[in-house]
Each structure stands twice: as C-alpha cells, then as structure tokens.
Amino acid sequence: GALLVSERIDREELCGTLSPCSLSFEILVENPLELYSGVVEIQDINDNDPVFPSSQARLEISESVAPGVRFPLESAQDPDVGINSLQTYQLSANPHFVLDVQTRGDGSKHAELVLEKELDREEQRELHLVLTALDGGSPPRSASVQIHIDVVDANDNAPVFNHSTYKASVRENTPSGTLVARISAYDLDDGPNGEIVYSFSSHTLAKVRELFTLDSATGELKVNGQLDYEETKLYEIYLQAKDKGAVPGVAHCKVLVEVVDVNDNAPEVTVTSVYSPVPEDAAPGTVVALLSVTDLDSGDNGLLIVQVSDVNDNAPKSLQDHYDVYVPENNIAGIPILNISATDPDLGPNSRLSYALLQGDPAVSRLFSISQENGTLYLLASLDHEDQVKFSMMVQVQDGGSLPLSTNLSVSVFVTDLNDNAPVVLYPRPNSTDVVAPGTPARHMVTKVVAVDPDVGYNAWISYTLLQATDPSLFSVGLHSGEVFTARQLREDEAPHHTLVILLKDHGEPVLSSSVTVTISVDEMVKEALIDLTDVAPAHDPRKHVTFYLILAVILVSAAFFITIVSVGIFKCYKWRQSKELFNNSRSTLYRTPGPFHHIDAVRGGFTPPNFYHQVYLTTDSRQSDILCKKPFTSSPLGSRQNTMRNGEPGLYHQIVGTASRLPKPTE
C-alpha cells in the first residue's frame, strides 16, 4: 500500500504558476469493494532565482519632470510560488529616486521609480542605479539589473490617457484579430513632440504579449493567441503612450481583460470497471462499473442536465375568473374588445391553448367571436344601449394534451350609453290649441310640454327654452319642467293668437335638441257677452238672475264631476286589489326600469265646465294610479272659457288613464 515516487518531481514543470500543485489518483480495493480517491500535493522549494528580462535598463527622463512622477521598471520573474516567489525589490541609494513596490491582482510584484527630487541636466547628465529583486526563501535568492538614466532637456507636455484603467471582456476561443479595446491618449505638443506611439509597458508579462497585439498608431488592442478561460480568467495589460520628442513624454494605463467562459469542454466520463466480464448469473444489483463525470467549464456550462418529460397534469389558468368589459354603443363592427390571457405550466402541446365561446344565448353567438389562437374577443356588429344593456357569455380555455384539460371563464359585456337620441315630444299634439282668458294673472300655467329621451343619465335630462314667441314678454317656460306660464297679466287688447316655439335640449355630449310649436288662443267672447247683458237688461228684467243660475249650474256640474271621479277611483282601487298578488309576482317582467331622468312628468286633460282645470300626474316610478282633485283658477264670476274637452286629446287622455293602474306609486 505504499505510494512511491518513480521519478524526480519538478513542480514548476508540472504546474507552472498554479498553486497549490496537486496530482490526483484513485485506489481500488477489493473484498470488500471500495474506491478511494487520493491527492498528492507537490510542495514548492526555493530552487529558482528571480530573473530579469535583461541585465541592463535605460531610461530617458527630462529635467522638467516634477517630483512624484512614476517610472515603471522591468519586472523580474520567479517560477517558484508562495513565499518562495518574488517578494520585493530594492534600489541602490541615490538623492533623486525612491522605489515603490506594488502588487498586482494575481499577487505578483512590480517596482516603480518615483522621482523625489527634481533633476538638473546641467548638474548631472546621467544616473546609474541598481535594482535588486528578492524572493522570500531562506536564505533569499536575488537578481539585479543595472538602470542607466539619461537626463535630457524638457519636452514639457507628456501624453495623457483618457482613462487610467480600461475594462473589456472577450469570450474564450475568440479568433485572432478580434478587437478587445481601443486606448486613446493626447499630447498638447506640436510636431514630433505631439505624435504618440502606443506600446506595451515593461510591466506586461511576456505571455500576455504573446496573446495580445497593440497597434502602435491607433491604440487598438487585439487578440493574437488562443484564450482559455480554464487557464486564466483575467488579464492585466499595462500599456504606455510615448510621444516622438527628443525627450519623449510617457503616459501609462492599464487594461483589464475579462475572459468569458464558453461551453467548449464536453463532460468527461471516467469508467472504472469492477467485473469484466460480468458473470451471466450475476444477481440484480451487482455493481458492474463506477462512473465519474467532470466538466472543466464553469457555471451552467459545467452542470449535467437531466431532461424530465412532461405530463398534462395542469389545467389552463387565468389571472381572473371573470372579466367585465365596457363598450360604448354604436361601435364599429369587427373591433377587438378584450384579450383573455391564460397560461399553462406544462410543455409542448400540453401547454398549447385554444379559446372558444360556449354555446348559450343566440345573440352572443351572433354578435361576438373569439380568436382560437390568442383569446381576443371581437364584436361583430354595432350595439345599441337602448336595445340591450348587458351580454353574458362563457369562454372555454383548453390545452392541447391527448387528454385535454380546460377552464371556463365568464365574461360580461356592458353597453354604455351615448347621446344618440334627441328629445321626443309627447304633448302637445300637432295642430292643437290651448285657450286662455283675458285678464289671466301672471305665473298662471297655461299648458305643459311633455317629452322623453330614450337615453339615460345626463343624456336624458331635458331642458326647455323659449326660442321664439309672438310676444316674448307674455309667456315663459320652466327650464326643467316644460310648464308654460304667463309672464304678466293678460290685457284686454292682447293679440287673439300666440305661437310659441320651444327648444328642447338634453345634457349629453354632444347636445341633441328638438323643438315644438305651442299655439295659445286668447278668447274674449264670454266677457263681451256679459258686457252686453249688463248694458241692455232692464232693472226688473227676470234675466238678472242669469248669473246666479250659471253659478249654480257650475256647482252642480262640478259636483257631478267629483262624484264621477270618486266612483272611478273606487272602481280602480277594487280592480287593483284583485290584481295585487298577480302584479307582485310579475312586476319584474312588466316594467323596464328607467334612468333617473327617463320619465313622463304630466299629462293634461279636462272636461266641461270651463271654470275648472284638471291635472292627472303620472310617473314611470309609480306603483298605482293617483288622481288629484280639481283646481279652480277662475279670475271672474264666470271663470275661464277654456274647454279642455274641445281642445284636449280624448284618445291620449283615455289611453293614459287606462294604463295608469299599471304604473308604480307616484312620488311627489
């Protein structure tokens, strides 16, 4: 079991600068079967001296160089590692320069001369210094180089780099000639003193100079050899820019080149055979061979990948189970209104989704369609809010597995209202005339304009404006009620006929409007008849009681009308109580709920006698009819000669009374 050295070991030959230096091996032990891994670490001894590239170095330094300027020196190389490698530099004593030893990123050392005292060419034209490199062995090994410094007259502007450090990255195995970085320096001098030549600094290792080339004129740094991430991951390249003056100025910079790993190494499988050949009667579970897998690449490039086949065990999923879509009416046919998004974590066909509308409402199938591939819902026709406000549908999302899985999503499409309907006048009817008596006081309601707007909300809120009138000072119109009032008391000499043009506007955007013409007649026949009777009747004429009889007739007719109204009310109440239960069960289907301003405010009708004014108020929010009592408005003993039976619309009146019992209960 002893492990012996079979030949002389040279660590520098085996591992170069890599530390630690190790050799691995495997030992197989039988009966029982065991496999051991072993590592032999080759320890370094201080058997190599530091070596400078040359025995002499020559520098030209201008006398105008200020103290503190640094001058890189040639670095010594020591193939040993660790403490036995190059550790420090020493400089011979002199009055002008000191030595600054710095450490690179890889731990190696390099030295720089730092001017501590200004040079004077007239006093001393040249200097001779000795640079000694020492390793850390015991005893230490060393090497020396002679440094000859020529002091020359000043080239007072040295080149200056744009950056002191440049960074670049390049993929390993990049072909030669590939540009890595472009350095740039400038020199304020003219002529040769301002012309710059780029070159590698003395700090740059010889191996780096073999892998990269530098264009002396353009400063382009390019790949020149084969880069290997597994060997070196980062290169520090020291460059300098020197002008062409008699005493050239020099600037220095550093380029850090990061090597990016590529998957250029295949996994290596090592098979250690245990039994060969394998007996035919070997029991199940018998170890036949041992496998070990390695990959020199890093990161994901060095993993082993095991593929797991997919099973369709996930149904499609959406971020939400229900979608609400709001579409303005009068839309353009064929527009997309919704994109349903669903995902399936399965792979391949198991994750390929298709979308379909489930059969339901025929109107949905006629008006909507969905893209089978991407779930976009299209509207095939123009919608009308006044026709239907809401559409509901189900969308099925199904994957492409051999046994497909699906998910159902609900979609509600709401049709929003646009102001596409102008107000429609219900009353007064065309060619109808309202009558008012002379002497009627101000603020007396003569008639009422009744209109509806099929839209909802502000689109259905109607305002009334007097647009044109025979006498604009005589009548006014309620802005929101549509009621026509006398603006002042009617005089005896008023024109017998008045025509009013009333403008009806909604509050939508844009505003829609319509107009109605109202004709009002001022009738003086009754007043003239009374004047004639007063003038020609004798003092004892039996017709002097005509006024009494007329008033008595009015009272009797009014009483008869009141009894009729009460009888009709009792009869309607009786019919309402009989149908109350049926109404409660079916009211949800008998009425369409209007918008907040979708209503009929009032309908005006009347019977003789002429000295009474009758109003029947109906609203679509009522739950039963409600007939209000008569309201006299006479301003003379005979009252007004208005005859609403003659001037009104009996058909409209009876139609509204006949439907009033089915309307909801009124609000004040």
TrEMBL record:
Protein location: Cell membrane
Pfam short name (any one) = Cadherin
Q: Where is the Cadherin domain?
A: 1-52, 53-161, 162-269, 319-425, 436-540
Q: What is its main location?
A: membrane
* Annotated source species: Nothocercus nigrocapillus
Question: GO terms for CC?
Answer: plasma membrane
Q: Which UniProt keywords apply?
A: Calcium, Cell adhesion, Cell membrane, Glycoprotein, Membrane, Repeat, Signal, Transmembrane, Transmembrane helix
Cell membrane listed as a keyword: yes
Taxonomic lineage per UniProt? Eukaryota, Metazoa, Chordata, Craniata, Vertebrata
Q: Membrane: is it a keyword of this entry?
A: yes
Name the GO terms of the biological process aspect. Answer: homophilic cell adhesion via plasma membrane adhesion molecules
| Official protein name in the record | PCDGK protein
- What parts of the sequence cross the membrane? 548-571
